[in-house]
Amino acid sequence: METILLVQFMGSLYGLLAIVFGAFGAHALKKSFTEEQLRSFETGVKYQMYHALLLIVLGFNFGFNTPLESYIAYCFIVGTFLFSFSIYGLTLSASKERKWRFLGPITPVGGLILVAGWGMLLYSFIGKLI
Prior knowledge:
Elements: H1 2-27, H2 35-61, H3 67-95, H4 106-129
Main location: membrane
Subcellular location: Membrane
Family: Belongs to the UPF0382 family.
């Protein structure tokens, strides 16, 4: 039961923040970002929203009775944080000409964790088909 609430909470939080960051990027950052930085920032927002919606769907459809279901959710929670928020940090710091290079390797790690979550989700569906 606790995992369900965590997943629903994180999905809601990520969704709320995606809207706030998207509006912030479209209005406040448009003047200080290059086109490339704006596209990168928007990529972070899009992936965050996609996974926020996915977490909400999983929170209402999974019982989290198996470790696999929990691993899937945790991959999406952690992967989204690492992927999207490292992009935000990279673009914001680059716009101030103080690029936080240590965040560069974090983005693909977050992406790999998201891929692992999607792979486990696919595996869970295949397991039910066979």
